[in-house]
Amino acid sequence: MQDSKVMASMLKDLTQYILIPNIRYAREIGIYASCDIAAYDSFYRDIVAIVPDATPDRNLAPRMTSKFNRYQLSPCHLYDAVLGMLKQALHTAGRLCTGRELAVPVRC
Prior knowledge:
Elements: H1 4-12, E1 15-26, E2 30-41, E3 46-55, H2 60-70, H3 78-98
Antiparallel strand pairs: 1-2, 2-3
């Protein structure tokens, strides 16, 4: 039987969140760069959840994956966590640009 500290350290990084940069095409805007965020399970050695085209913001995407890894987000909550962080980023950007709260609430 393993020591509890050893077992805790073994399970600590069971899920790793990774950033997958992509070049995409949309008819309305043309070619653009975007990032997918995926949950890689070290036990199964496979991607267990993915949010394609999560954000084109190259500063926000690494912050997302860093937080998800730090707090060991469950893969079943990945989509909701990405939406929440995008909503927060949009809300913060609205306050920075206008100097006040957004007039229209953000809905997902």
